[in-house]
Amino acid sequence: MSYPRVKRLSEEIKKIVSNIIRNELRDPRIAPMTSIVEVDVTRDLRYVNIYISVLGTEKEKEATMEGLIKASGFIRREIGQKIKARYTPEVIFKLDESIERGIHMYNVITKVNEQNSTTSDEDKTDE
């Protein structure tokens, strides 16, 4: 069952947090290639799970998550000032590595296709 209010709130929070990360946070730990993949607000509007994707090394990912967790109080306050809701949801950041997995799978598939095409080319020359 879909809840339109929760969807609207999720999209609005995504816009707000994206703007905050890009323009307002001055933490050097947060990598410049940080993006919000998805925002899930619970049905009771008490918690918001924000899935973050960081393009970089494992060390950069850990540092970015640490910086975002430290800034979660500031981010929650900013969300509370910009949305009109009875409760300001508690912000929970989670690292989402689906983009990296997608890039890895693309590279694997490309490599297999290249190997198959060279193998089929060799078979044609043998005939």
TrEMBL record:
<comment type="subunit">
    <text>Monomer. Binds 30S ribosomal subunits, but not 50S ribosomal subunits or 70S ribosomes.</text>
</comment>
<keyword id="KW-0690">Ribosome biogenesis</keyword>
<keyword id="KW-0963">Cytoplasm</keyword>
<comment type="similarity">
    <text>Belongs to the RbfA family.</text>
</comment>
<dbReference type="Pfam" id="PF02033">
    <property type="entry name" value="RBFA"/>
</dbReference>
<dbReference type="InterPro" id="IPR000238">
    <property type="entry name" value="RbfA"/>
</dbReference>
<comment type="function">
    <text>One of several proteins that assist in the late maturation steps of the functional core of the 30S ribosomal subunit. Associates with free 30S ribosomal subunits (but not with 30S subunits that are part of 70S ribosomes or polysomes). Required for efficient processing of 16S rRNA. May interact with the 5'-terminal helix region of 16S rRNA.</text>
</comment>
<protein>
    <recommendedName>
        <fullName>Ribosome-binding factor A</fullName>
    </recommendedName>
</protein>
